[in-house]
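Chapter review: from sequence to fold.
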Amino acid sequence: MTKIKLTKSALTKGFAALLISLLFIELGIWQLHRAQDSTKASHPIINRNVAPLDSIAQAGANLSPMAINRMVEMTGRYVKLYSAPNQPVANGSSKRKVSLEVRILKISGNRGILVVRGVDSTKSQSIGEDVKVIGRLYPRQSTDVAIPAKGGLTRLDPALVTGDTKLELFDGYVIAQLEQTSYGIAINAMRISAPIQISKVSGYYWQHITYVFIWWLLALMALGAPFYNRLRDKIAP
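The token string follows.
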């Protein structure tokens, strides 16, 4: 019966191979999760129920991924008016660029949120009473689409208006689909569509799956590396 001698060198090599193999396995699992995320991102599950804004988001905090695309409602009073030029808006299968009317809606608790009312008008409506707003919640824009101008927003981002108000602002913005007075009377405006925003995950499903197999194959190779020389000696003529 052949005795197997486990030298210190062999144990060290085996332990190193095991660690490297575990690393490759973890990388494979990470790519598997990325593949699952890419599938979820391209097929978002939309909650069509209208929820109070403060039940799914918190003022002064980053917007949760679960809150994006939710239909929300809130009641307050408009306190600031802005124009957001050069904004891309869905127009059938294409997009057109328009100037949007954006206001800060002050709600209870000294909080506020940016509301896109619709296409900007040279004769902006004077709304001095409380308004109930129902619309879709979006994350803030991270890229400027217009040049800086007085009273204008280069992107839809509450960070741009923090210096104009003492309100604690919610992250993101709402595209209004309905506005009502406290008497239930609808307020008309040149509304824009509020499509579902699909988040982007880098890479494609099968690309990530390919990486899964590559990483796990490397894990097997790493486990077999310490035995390669012994196997080669046995099969050599």
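Two observations follow directly from the output. The CA atoms of residues 80 and 164 lie 8 Å apart. The chain has four helices and six strands.
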